[in-house]
Amino acid sequence: MTLSWLSIFRLGAVQMALGAIVVLMTSTLNRLMVVELALPAVLPGLLVALHYGIQITRPNWGFLSDTSGKRSFWIVTGMAVLAAGGMLAATGVWAMEESFSTGLAISILAYILIGIGVGASGTSLLALLATATAPERRPAAATITWLMMILGIAATAGIVGAVLEPYSPERMLTIVAIVATAAVTVTCLAVWGVERGVHAERAPEEQPFLQGLKEVWAEHDARRFTIFVFLSMTAYFMQELILEPYAGLVFGFSPGQSTSLSGAQNGGVFLGMVTVGIAGTALRIGSLRTWVIAGCIGSAATQVGLAALGPLGPGAPLVPMVVAMGFFNGMFAVAAIGSMMALAGQGREKREGTRMGLWGAAQAIAAGFGGLVGAGAVDAMRTVMDDAPAFGAVFLAEAGLFLLAASMAFRMMSKPSAPNPALVPGE
């Protein structure tokens, strides 16, 4: 048996819960440290980078979910660790008011736990989806789970922002505790009986982790897809830290306008993801391979467009270009996730989690690396040229990476013989 639509939505609720906790760490606590505590912005940036770095352990969690026989256990356990990390992170911010060193030590431990929790829960969840989702439902499954994560992020940010006023450390701790408890509860209910219902449970298997990882890395397709994920996600995240400064420095956007620009980008991402979900599943237009390539090429084109708008300065149609960029980014991202689901089941049996973990680790490393490279390159360029060409040069480099990723996808996602080729990674 394969996952029903109801079960896919239930597992999507896990992603929603995951996003709800993570957004508190990357947004709310970030603001509290910088504004209320007047700490350098680099501090929360380094803590967020730490949680990404810890996710290099994703292959370990995927391997454990492969060999233990029960993925649901690791989904729930990971969410519990993530919730504990979230509570500890809030405690660290509270402690910084009295003792910076104590609060920092607590925060470092907290973000380590957050990275572990996201890795264990997220990787095992994707492995379960990859194992039990019918091929024709994978585009929609990827869209559903990622849109529900975005919903969790947006809803939590909006609600918490409203109820956090007037701010006090006690109120902040209470809110984080409620969100963390709700996330764990939703996760337990969401996975209850799903794995048994699709016969995805398996007998435990004893094998050293490194041996299992070497077996997966030896697979030609898995290795090439890992490189593709790192390359494409590096391009995807390069603009993350420079888009709003670009809008302010080159186009004269106010802080409020820059924030709304980020919202416009996320709106484009939403439309891109929905397009792939509907076209790939309901209308059966194109394959995941086609959508990945189209998303990469479209993303490259919009990066060139962003660079071209720089010399025009204030008054240039920046917002429509950013919406278009978000659209193609969302198209590429959700198609790549769907491709992961399809490719995870190829190769040695019972290694879906290890493959998803390997690709998840590549994505997490690329997120930190891409953002750092993008910001660092802009800083370096601005020392020798004006703002517009400095940012433009980075956008053009990002476009080149997206085109290289599209070329890799074209060559890597070969044309398999399949009864319904519109719904598998190849064509």
Features:
single chain, 427 residues, mainly alpha, 2 domains, 16 helices
Give structural notes.
- With 427 residues, the chain is mostly helical.
- It has helices at 5-36, 42-54, 58-68, 71-96, 100-132, 138-163, 169-191, 194-197, 209-217, 220-238, 243-251, 255-282, 288-309, 318-344, 352-382, 387-412.
- It has two domains: 1-206, Growth Hormone, Chain: A, CATH 1.20.1250; 208-427, MFS general substrate transporter like domains (Growth Hormone, Chain: A), CATH 1.20.1250.20.
- It is 79% helix and 0% strand.
- Helix 6 packs across helix 14 and helix 13 runs antiparallel to helix 16 (387-412).
Q: What is the CATH domain class of the largest domain?
A: Mainly Alpha
- CATH homologous superfamily heading of the largest domain: MFS general substrate transporter like domains
Largest sheet: none
The portion of residues assigned to helices is over 70%
Question: What is the end-to-end distance?
Answer: 25 Å
Structural class: mainly alpha
Number of domains: 2
How large is the count of helical segments?
16
Q: Report the portion of residues in β strands.
A: under 5%
The beta-strand count equals 0
Detail the poorly predicted runs: 415-427
Short description:
It is built from 16 helices and no strands.
Layout of helices and strands:
Blueprint: H1 5-36, H2 42-54, H3 58-68, H4 71-96, H5 100-132, H6 138-163, H7 169-191, H8 194-197, H9 209-217, H10 220-238, H11 243-251, H12 255-282, H13 288-309, H14 318-344, H15 352-382, H16 387-412
Helix pairs in contact: 1-2, 1-4, 1-5, 1-6, 1-7, 2-5, 3-4, 3-5, 3-15, 4-5, 4-7, 5-14, 5-15, 6-12, 6-14, 10-14, 10-15, 10-16, 11-12, 12-14, 13-14, 13-16, 15-16
